[in-house]
Amino acid sequence: MTNYNAPAFRRTALLPSIIPVIALLIGVALIGTDSFTIIRYVVSIFAVIVLVFAVQARSWWWVLPLAAIAVLWNPVFPFGFEGDLWLGMQYIAALIFIGAGVFVKDRSVH
Description:
single chain, mainly alpha
């Protein structure tokens, strides 16, 4: 029996995208402090998680921006960004995560 009310897709990347958005917005206040390292870990790890969901959903256009976030927020080999550039990148990354969360759709629902 077919369930016509069931959606034809799942947004598998939605929840893993919300968590780093919250971290990025909190990180705006922590830029330049030692606590910002925690934000970098959260963002880079969730960028890889959302990237995997994007690959599984064959949403290839999200792979490059998410990979860039994973590299730029990497706390092991940090880039020396400071000030307004880093602040602007926080907001751009948040927008990328929101976009990926909304537009990455797994259509292999049975």
